[in-house]
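Input sequence (193 aa), recorded before submission:
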Amino acid sequence: MSEKTNESMEEKVEQTVEEQAEGTVDNEGADTTKKASEDKKEKKKSKKEQLKEELEEMTDKYTRLFAEFQNFRSRNEKEKSSMYEMGASNIIEKILPIVDNFERGIKALSEDDLKSPVGEGMNLIYKQLVDTLTDIGVEPIEAEGKEFDPDFHNAVMHEENDEVGEQIITEEFQKGYKYKDSVIRHSMVKVAN
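Predicted structure, token format:
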């Protein structure tokens, strides 16, 4: 009996050891499973955080790119308008001598010549040319009797004149013109000292 008892006890001990070993394995498996699920959660969290960071970066890049595009568009519009104004100024500058010649021609005509068909035609063409320039924004610069302003006037002569004040324009030799806010041609004038 002692051998049987010994054997059965040994079997029981072995069985208990095996059960405990299996339990340990189960516990370790549970620990491993817990660790794996925690790792998955951390990966999900880190992946979510990574995606959030990428989204923020992309949003920032988009915002900056959109702002750069808006700046480019406004610069482009300004350049277009300045190029248009430069081109218009160049053409107007070339037309102004024609206007000057019409004015000289009309001043040279006598009263009878002004009433003739040629004089009337010349006067009508001059008025049409001046009206067209006015319509596009060209204005003559007022000079005679005004105070000298170097931004608009070019003094080519000075005279001593006590009847008018100092720095007053007494005579205009050539009309000046402005296009919008820029001077196309300064008025050539005589200024009193």
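Checked by second reader. Strands lie at 138-141, 153-159, 169-174, 176-179, 182-185, 187-192.
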